[in-house]
Here is the input.
Amino acid sequence: MSNRDGPTPPESSLVTGRRPLGRLVISLAWPVLVQQFLILSVGLYDQFLAGANAPADAAKHVGYQSSQTTANYLAWFITMSASALFSVGATALVARFVGAGETGRANRAANQSILMAAVFGVVGTPLTLLALPWGAHALGMRDEGAADAIRFLQPMFLLLTFLLVEQAAIACLIGAGDTKTGPVVLGGVALLNIPLAWSCYHGWGPIPAMGFFGIGLGTALSHACGCLGALGVLAAGRYGLKLRLADLRPDVPVMYRMLRVSVPASVDTLSIGLCQLWFLSLVVALGEAELAAHGTAIRFEGLGYLSGQAFATAAAALVGQNLGAKRPREAARAARISLLYGCVTMSVMGVLFFAFAPQLFKLFNPFDHQQPIVDAGVPVLRLVAFAMPALSAIIVLSGALRGAGDTRFPILLTWIGFLAIRLPLAYLLTRDSVDVGPFAVPGWNLGLFGAWVAMFADLSVRGALFLARFAGGRWKTVRV
Here is the structure.
C-alpha cells in the first residue's frame, strides 16, 4: 500500500523491527501489565478505605462493602460499554494505518476517537446520573445500601467525560505501538487517588468529610488529571500521533470505519455487562456478607484478568499492524505467543489465589465481625484459580480478534456463555427451587459457591470456543 502521508517514523511501527517476536510481545505487555495493576490498585484502595474505615457498627460495616460491590459493577458496566464504542475501533484502525505506513491517516483516526469520546461523555453524563437510582434498585439494592452506592458513583459519572477521553487517548497510543504512556498516566492517577480519596472521605483542612461520596470524588478527580496528562502527551506528539485542530473536525468516513469495528465490540461489552448485572442480582439476593465476599473475590480475580489483558493488548497491536502490513502468518504467530505468555502468567496468579486466599481476604476484612465474608469468599477464590487457563484464552484471543477487527463473533460466544450456561446454572445452584412456567425445578442452593461454579462452567466453555474461532483463521480476512 502506498504511503501518501510521508515517511513513517521507525518507532511507530512494530512490524519493521528485527526483535524476536517473543521479546516484542513482552516489551509491549509489561507496561500494560503495570497499567492494569495501577487501575486495579485504585479500586482496591477505594475498597480498603471503605472496608477498614467504615463505622464501628458491624452491620453497617458489611453494608458499606456490599454497597461498594454494587457500585463497582455499575461503574464498570457504564464506563466499559461507553469506552468500547470508540477505543476498540481506534486501536484497530490506528494499528492498521501504522502497519501500512500511513501515519497521516493514523493520526486522523486518533483525533476522531478523542472527539467521539468527548462528545459521548458530554451527552452521556446527565443520562448516567439520572439512571443511577434506577440501576441500583434494579439490582435489588434498597434504602441505605442503594443511597451509599449512588453517592459513591455520582462524582465519577459527573466527570465521566475525562475518564472516557483518557481511555481513548491511551487506546490510540496502544494502536501506534506505545504501551508505556498509559502506565505513566495511570501511575499518576493511582498516586493522586490515595491522598484525594482519603482527604475527601475523612475530611482534611478545608475539605469536609464526605463519606462514600468523597471516595468517588477523589477517584474522579484523579482520572480528570490523568485525562489532562494523556492529552498533553498527544499534544506534544508521540509515535506519530498528535492532536491537531484540523483533525478534530468531524470526519464521517473515518468515524464510520471506527464504528464498524467498535459498535459490535460495544454490543459485546454491553451484553457482558447486562449479563454480569443479572448475575450480580442473584448474588445480591444471597445477603450482604455473600455480596461483600463476591466483590472482594472479584477484585482479586481481577489480578488474573488484568494480567491477561496486558497480553491481549500486545496481541491487538501486533495483529492489527501485521495485518495492515499484509503479514497474516506473523499476526497469527504473535497471537499464539501472546496467548502462551498470558496463560502462564494467569496460571501463576491462580496458584497464588489458591495458596493465599485466606490471607488475601483477611487483608480487606480484618475485623472479627467480617469473618462471614472471609468464610464465603475463600472457597470461591480458590475455585476460580482453576479457571485461569480458560480465562486467558477468552481475554487474549478476544484482544487478538479485536485487533483484527473481528468483533462480531465474540458477541455470539458471550450470549452462549452467559445465557445458555452461567445464568441458568446460577439459578439452579443458588436457589432451593426454580419456577419454570407452571413447574418448579429443584435447586441445590449452594450459596455464593454455587454462583461461582456456574461462572467456572461458563469460562471453561467460552475458552474452548475462542480457541476454536482463532484456529479457524477467518479473522485474518476481516475488513476494517
